[in-house]
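Hi all, a correction to my earlier message: I attached the wrong file for Serpentine receptor class r-10. Here's the right sequence:
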Amino acid sequence: MHIRVFVSEWAEVSGNRTETLIQNNFTVITIVPIAVRIVMNSSLHILQYSGFGLAQVTNLVMLILIHKKAKGLFGNYRHVMTVFTAYSILYTWIEMIALPLMYDHGSMFILIIDSCLRYEKLIGHYVACLFCGSFALCITLLATQFYYRYIAVCQPVNLVRLNGWRLCLLFIPSIFFFFAWFFLVFFGMKETEGKVKYAREIILEVYKEDLSKTAFIALQFWDTDSDGNRSFRVSDWLSYLGCLSIIGSCFSTILFCAVKIYFKLKCSQNVMSSKTRELHRQLLKTLIFQTALPFFTMYSVVGTILSLPIFEIGVGLIANLCGSGACVYPALEPLIAMYFVKDFRNTLTCKSKVEVTVPNIEMLIAPCNSQISSLVLINKVLI
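and the right structure:
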């Protein structure tokens, strides 16, 4: 009798311990992924906040340098620089209002508003569209900078067409692309019941947010019926193609202008003094960095992440690279000019201005149909 009671009690205690152990293991298994997701979300927001703060500093310093130093160096180009630098500050504020979180799931790319407006579905939708349109304006203003440089270096005789109020005409394509991207997202990526149903579970699991209550936009390429047959979502495809065309046209403009400027400078170096050749080398380095940085932080990343759902390649949280690159770029871009433009660098390092004598103009009459004025402009930029 005592043996049976002992065995019974031992079994009960063992069972309780086993149950407790299972519960503890289950709790650990449940808590760990949640903790990982919280850390990842927090890391993204820390990056966004850090990029925002750094962008305020670097761009404000850049505006001061442009105001103090650029008038004699850049001519009308300083106005183009001012517009882009001031807009970079505005862009980071728009990003702070949105605090976007992104996710790739199956045939869908989704962007969720994670700021205080995330449960304001109507306002949040407009904020998401504004954030996307602002990205388009950022990349088109960058292309505008390169186009102006191309005109100044390769076609200086046409600079007179951009004097005075006519310089404003240079920004018309940027404004057009801003509204184009805004409405492509507004109508083509708007929330639907099908999109909520498709991604609700995964977003609830990953971000602990209910899509039916959260402001979001989504790009979904395919609809799948109960039989497994897929059909095109025409509005989403048109939106995707429109956005990709804007990205492609902007980067093609930058690449075309950069290549033309590069070979123009290379061609002109044959008849330059060693000092002028060194100045041109600095400008070439600037061009390389200012072309590579947006490509690796914005163009290639956004284009790739938006395209992967076509093949139902779900990269999950890696989609946040879009937002990460877009928040880092405005903070880093001014540093390139601050470092490579000698007058800016000397001011920041408290060095006295180094006087550089511009070579004899007659020495600058180069082959390859180069223009004297373009070479003088290049010298002034780097002195």
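Sorry for the mix-up. The chain has a mean pLDDT of 82.
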